[in-house]
Each structure stands twice: as C-alpha cells, then as structure tokens.
Design a protein that fits this description.
Elements (H helix, E strand, L loop, with lengths): L1 H15 L1 E5 L5 H16 L4 H11 L2 H10 L1 E7 L2 E10 L15 E8 L8 H12 L4 E7 L3 H9 L3 E6 L7 E7 L2
Parallel strand pairs: 4-5
Antiparallel strand pairs: 1-2, 2-3, 3-4, 5-7, 6-7
The structure holds coenzyme A (COA).
The site of coenzyme A has 18 residues, from helix 2, strand 4, helix 5 and helix 6.
EC number: 2.3.-.-
InterPro entries: Acyl_CoA_acyltransferase, Bact_Acetyltransf, GNAT_dom
Protein name: GNAT family N-acetyltransferase
C-alpha cells in the first residue's frame, strides 16, 4: 500500500510540472527536436525510409510555419521544455490533395509525445483539448498502418476506422473518426 501511495504521489507531483498552451512560431525549433526524438522510434520499425521521409518533409521549419498559419497547435511543456504537441485544422486548408474526400473535415494532423514522457496522460490531455476546441461534430485523424500503439490509443478514446488510403509505395494511411457531439 505504501508503494502504491508513493507511486500515486510521484505521478501527481510529476504531472504538476506539466503546462499546456498554444504553439507559436517560436516553438518551431522545439517541434523539430521533438520530431527527431519521436519519429524514428515510432516509424522506423514500420518502414525506416518512410520515417526519414517524414522527418525531411513534415518536420522541417517551412512546413511548421505553413501549418502554424492555418492550423491550431497545442504544446505541453515540462519544466519549460516542449515534450509534446498536437495540431489540428480543416482539411481544405492543407496543401495536400485528398481525392477520396468529398466535403470538409476537421483533422488532427499531429499528436506526438516525447518517448521519455509516454504514459503520463499527456497525449490524452492534448487530445481532450483538441476535441474541446474543434468546432464541427467530428474529429478525423490519420494513423500510419502498423502504428498499433497509436491505433489502440485512439480506439480506446472513441475513434473508429473509416477508410484506408495507400499507394503501395508507402504504408497505408488509416483514417479514423470520432463523433464529438
Ligand atoms: C500515442 C501517444 C500520442 C499517446 O500519448 P501518451 O501521452 O503516451 O498517452 P497517455 O499517457 O495519455 O495514455 C497512453 C496509454 O498507454 C498506456 N501506457 C502506459 N505506459 C505507457 C508507455 N510507457 N508508453 C505508452 N503508453 C503507455 C497508458 O496507460 C494509456 O493506456 P490507456 O489507453 O489504457 O489509458 C504517444 O504514445 C506517442 O506520441 N506515440 C508516438 C507518436 C505517435 O504514434 N503519435 C500518433 C500519430 S497518429
């Protein structure tokens, strides 16, 4: 019992050091550093070339600056250091093409927690913040085929698989959706 109590206290103490806020262009270097820490262990085991492509195409300053102009970014900090981020916005504002989609979608484009901080409730908290801020009735997201930990995380929080999109050159994108209200 004493062990359990101290574990709960320790968790609460660590959690109290966390703060959440909106992301800005000042966070771009921290976003890049977060990507370097979290992208290789997440996607390397699925497809190492894909993991590298992600870092090169999606985790670069130009891409973050473009995203910050049209999407909302949320940041979790621990002791002043960015340890997680989420980004969401309208599909129509993405520079990517989505020929399979008719109409508009609110999409969470990113939810990434530094590996040293997994399992502390940060991802759940950021997702809850995103769901509260989204204006539409649904929230969509893409999970890379094979990212089972993230798929289970989203499924446990009410997301269901809606479609799989792929070109066979890279792992499929599994689209998931959750009705919010
Ligand atoms: C998926 C991810 C965002 C979840 O964030 P998180 O802060 O670890 O999530 P939480 O702590 O809120 O919850 C994690 C869940 O895994 C469990 N867990 C426990 N220890 C864990 C650990 N060391 N690592 C991961 N999950 C752990 C938690 O108990 C919880 O389970 P639950 O669903 O039964 O509540 C995070 O693991 C991550 O960044 N993964 C790599 C990047 C990624 O795949 N992002 C999603 C792209 S679509």
């Amino acid at each position: 019992m004493a062990d359990l109590t101290s574990a709960v206290e320790e968790r609460a103490q660590r959690a109290s050091l966390l703060t959440y806020r909106r992301g800005t262009t000042a966070d771009v270097p921290a976003f890049r550093a977060l990507g370097e820490a979290v992208v290789p262990p997440t996607y390397g085991p699925i497809d190492a070339a894909y993991a590298q492509r992600m870092l090169d195409e999606w985790w670069v300053p130009e891409r973050f600056e473009a995203s910050l102009a049209v999407n909302t970014h949320l940041v979790a900090e621990c002791d002043g250091e960015v340890v997680a981020m989420a980004a969401f916005g309208l599909l129509s504002r993405s520079h990517r093409e989505f020929p399979h989609v008719a109409g508009e979608r609110e999409v969470m484009w990113k939810l990434y927690v530094h590996p040293d901080h997994h399992g502390r409730g940060i991802g759940s908290r950021l997702l809850a913040e995103v769901e509260a801020l989204v204006e539409g009735d649904e929230l969509w997201l893409e999970v890379v085929e094979g990212n089972e930990q993230a798929f289970r995380f989203y499924a446990a929080r009410g997301f269901t698989e809606a479609e799989r999109i792929g070109d066979r050159a890279w792992p499929d994108d599994v689209w998931m959706v959750k009705r919010l209200r």
